[in-house]
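in:
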């Protein structure tokens, strides 16, 4: 794993956006895996800027989001569909037919997960998967204990995850379940970009990067992937001894 540290959040976000822009330019039909949460918001803003000011063209790019709350309509502002529209899809020239987020309502969950896996397979897999990290080490919505071979499925969220995400969004309620790509699905991406910022992530980043590889810290499983770049701001890297 390559660990890159930046002096602040904006620099980390700009570097992450540059990496994505490079892959979009290099690949003829790029397939990106995308994440939600507060961490990638700056990266999405920078991608929108690169589109508007430097002509970064998303028209040939396909995207797959990691997860969606179970039971939320895409028009619900708490949903990840909404988040993606707000932060990226409405700001760049992605083809709506090529942007995919698991459907969290009005579908049979197992059939939806199977459909999602097939879609990823049909386009030849994910070239670059962006990940944030939860306070308990989750990636996507793969909570501690998740099977390293898991595929896209309906998952129960840890109470801590629901509480943290409600607090961040100043929300009164969130579903206790979600559809999430599995660890196995994520690990099949050709390249992974893990992002974390802020001092609050320092301890879980230390455990994920330097601790033992265990399903109790899902992000630690990334140590077994051959092509991971981890971008951190200085506060998140505080407990790593990179000397
Ligand atoms: C959610 C998402 C994760 C994300 C995590 C961290 O639970 N499902 O994909 O990585 O939050 O969020 P944040 O970036 O806000 O810390």
């Amino acid at each position: 794993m390559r660990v890159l540290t930046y002096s602040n959040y904006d620099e980390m976000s700009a570097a992450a956006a540059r990496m994505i822009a490079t892959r979009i330019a290099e690949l003829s039909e790029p397939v990106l895996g995308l994440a939600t949460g507060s961490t990638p918001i700056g990266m999405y803003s920078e991608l929108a800027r690169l589109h508007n000011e430097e002509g970064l063209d998303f028209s040939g790019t396909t995207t797959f989001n990691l997860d969606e709350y179970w039971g939320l309509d895409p028009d619900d502002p708490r949903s990840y569909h909404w988040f993606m529209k707000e932060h990226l899809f409405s700001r760049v020239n992605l083809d709506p037919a090529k942007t995919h987020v698991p459907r969290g309502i009005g579908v049979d969950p197992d059939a939806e997960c199977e459909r999602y896996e097939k879609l990823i397979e049909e386009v030849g897999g994910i070239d670059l998967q962006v990940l944030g990290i939860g306070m308990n080490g989750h990636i996507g919505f793969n909570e501690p204990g998740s099977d390293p071979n898991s595929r896209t499925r309906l998952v129960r969220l840890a109470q801590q995850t629901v509480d943290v995400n409600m607090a961040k969004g100043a929300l009164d309620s969130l579903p206790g379940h979600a559809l999430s790509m599995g660890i196995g699905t994520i690990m099949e991406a050709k390249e992974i970009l893990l992002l974390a910022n802020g001092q609050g992530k320092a301890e879980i980043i230390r455990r994920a990067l330097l601790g033992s590889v265990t399903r109790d810290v899902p992000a630690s499983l990334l140590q077994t992937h051959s092509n991971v770049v981890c971008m951190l701001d200085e506060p998140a890297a505080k407990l790593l001894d990179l000397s």
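note: The pocket of GLP is lined by residues 35-39, 66-67, 132-134, 140-141, 161, 165, 168 (CB under 6 Å).
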